[in-house]
Amino acid sequence: MGTDALFRLSSAPETETVTITFEGRAIRVPAGLNVAAALLAGGVHNFRSSVVGGSPRAPYCMMGVCFECLVEIDGVPARQSCLTPVREGMTVSPQIGAAALSFDGGE
Q1: What InterPro entries is this protein classified in (predicted)?
Q2: What is the pLDDT of residue 84?
């Protein structure tokens, strides 16, 4: 199986860039991308594992409909990476299975 990135950024001149971290690996990307595009351009293939069976999953629709791009961002699980813009210092981890939900409602 190849290890090439599934997604490539255009060759337009870069403007400002930011560095995000995925599983301890720094990925430098243009500012303004969403997290899913940044991870795909960085060669990430496995964003989460399915709740049933643990199969690896990756973004499909890139517009917030399919929920295949769920990741943990800065310790917050089940974030849609295709709808979240990157920012400097962001830490991203794969979503493993179902996210633990808190039902305390802050009360």
Answers
A1: 2Fe-2S-bd_N, 2Fe-2S_ferredoxin-like_sf
A2: 98
CA distance 31 to 73: 17
Compute the C-alpha angle 96/77/92, nearest 5°: 80
For the chain, the maximum distance between any two Cα atoms, rounded to a whole number of angstroms, is 50
Q: What predicted TM-score, i.e. pTM, was given to this entire model?
A: 0.83
Cβ-contact 40, 5 below 8 angstroms: yes
The predicted pLDDT at position 102 comes to 67
- Whether the per-residue pLDDT at 107 is higher than 50: the answer is no
Q: How far apart are CA 37 and CA 29, in angstroms?
A: 9
